[in-house]
Amino acid sequence: MQTSRAVLRRGLVFGLRSGAIPAGACAVLWLMVAVTRWVHGPSGSTFEDPPRAALAVVGSLAVGAAIGAVTGAVLAYAPQRLLSSAPLRAVLCFAIGGTLSSGEVAVMAVSSDGGYGPILLALAAMPVVGVVTAARGREIAAARLPAARHL
Predict the structure, then answer these.
(1) Is 86 exposed, middle or buried (0-12, 13-18, 19+ CB in 10 A)?
(2) Confidence at residue 151, expressed as pLDDT on a 0 to 100 scale
(3) Could you report the per-residue pLDDT of 30-57, keeping only the tens digit for each?
(4) Which residues, 6 or more positions from 8, have their beta carbon under 8 angstroms from its beta carbon?
């Protein structure tokens, strides 16, 4: 049971770190739009609306946390045979990360009022999120792997 909690915690930490990247990018964009509006006047950006910008930042962080928490939960309770096989573990983590990153597409669709740029960028990031999740799968599941206990 202790190892399952460690895997869940590692998954959540991974998710918060990975969610902080798009959340940080949205926060910087929001700040740039706010400064531009203050200096040059309104520009017509949907990020001029503070609730939409806050939704983009908080929503991106929440999607990252969900990806990490679900990945950690699945790896915490997956059969040992699946965890021991690196290709199977990678495919499982890729599927989780790639599928759940569609939440980022929804966050960008709502926060950008249907703007094509942010939505296409979030769609293009889906396979990247899957690959990163697959690459970090061993680190997340390390507490349950037999070889990791001897280190």
Answers:
(1) exposed
(2) 42
(3) 888 777 777 777 766 666 677 888 888 8
(4) 69, 72, 73, 76
pLDDT in tens, 70-111: 999 999 898 988 888 999 999 999 999 999 999 989 998 888
The tokens for 74 are 């699945």
Residue 3, pLDDT above cutoff 90: no
CB proximity list for 10: less than 8 A, separation 6 or greater = 72, 139, 140, 141, 142, 143
Contacts of 151 (CB under 8 A, 6+ apart): none
